[in-house]
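Same chain as my last thread, 452 residues:
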Amino acid sequence: MHEVLNFNYDYSKCMVMKLKMSDPEKNVPNQSRVWLTFAQALEYIKKIDSITQGIPKIYYLVGWQYLGHDDQYPDFFEVNEALKRPQDKTAYDSFKWFSEEAKKYHSVISVHINFNDAYDNAPSFSEFVKAGALIRKKNGKLHAIENYNGRRCYKTCHKAYWESGLFKKMFDRFVNTFPFIAETGTIHVDNFQCYKNYAPDVSIREMQNARREMIKYVHAKGMDITSEFTYKESESLPNRPIFGLPRDHFRKYPMDTVGLIPLSWWCYRMTPKELLDTPPAIYCGGEFREEKYNKLFYGNMHGEDIIDDSIKKENQNWAEKFIRRFATYQVPCHFLNTHKRLGMHGSRNNLSCQFSEDIVSYTKGEKITRNGKVIKDGDTLFLPFVHREKQYIAYSEKGDARAWDIFENGVSKAELYKITENGNVFLEEVKIANGKIKLSVPPKTALLVVCA
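reply #2:
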């Protein structure tokens, strides 16, 4: 039995996204490349709330600190001034404003931080060196395992980070500096992997034990940790890629943080048994690295890619892509997450999963059936919208006209609304006869169907 924390959210019923705010400018010292200011991010949040029908949403801001993404870790105590509103005195004030305003749109604003990476331009770097809290090579020298923003990226030794008291000191300062973030009850910790230390010798198992203590300490402060991967480290896992092969986690090792981390951005090398035995309310994604599972279980859409693309290309049609991804990925994920996984059948790219209430999901054709009747047929669907009673989401990529089954009793009509980024647009009222509703869905259109 795994220890299971009492999480602040049921992540299997939330929509969880990142928003990329800024990066350090590569060729200009002490400058940021801004993707979104706080004010601009709020405009996207308003439109996404309209598209998603006001379901609970959690956003983790990437590059909110210092000069942006991956800058000055392991410190995370200053807001990037390039993100502020002109009318505010500081970026900190703008962040507080943004956090409060987002609540009006069913959105929680938290942060993407890192407990693993350390750069020599971080204010606390010398403290980590003194505490022995950085990974070292066998010769005793600090080991710069990666490189980001043109700087060597060292890794923290979780055991020393925890046992020295430095982790408590750093996280307490974060909570005291940003009480409005602490109040959200959730943070995203990027790349929380374990690395082996060679001087002194610290095993992966010891690092994992220290990581558990770190997670529990954050939880004691009232916050859940979501993270990047499904962590399945072993003693054979190298600190760096070997002969160009990736540093990898393997299926045969157990999930080390199940019950402690409720959601990962990437669900990674999970076995069929783990997928069946781990309820989504205990652990979910995100997306799967193995595409076949994205077609079987779906997940939390990585919608920030759509936002990033719209900014880079000044694409005003981003909402169309977002609506498609929401309807064809997020909606089926939430629907399936409300049912128990009973068994998996097939192999490779021809899998099926049996759920409770006679629901079956198939990778082939990306089909879902209920009581033997099709409710999702590739990119055409008519799925219960589990966040509200007697409501459905209909969508078709190429356009579709057919009769769908209604599973509620005692309903005789339905109102149809077109889902847009600016709000739902009423279309018409249609009859429901003999438990069926006839719908004609235009191409690339999502409908909200409200039964009465």
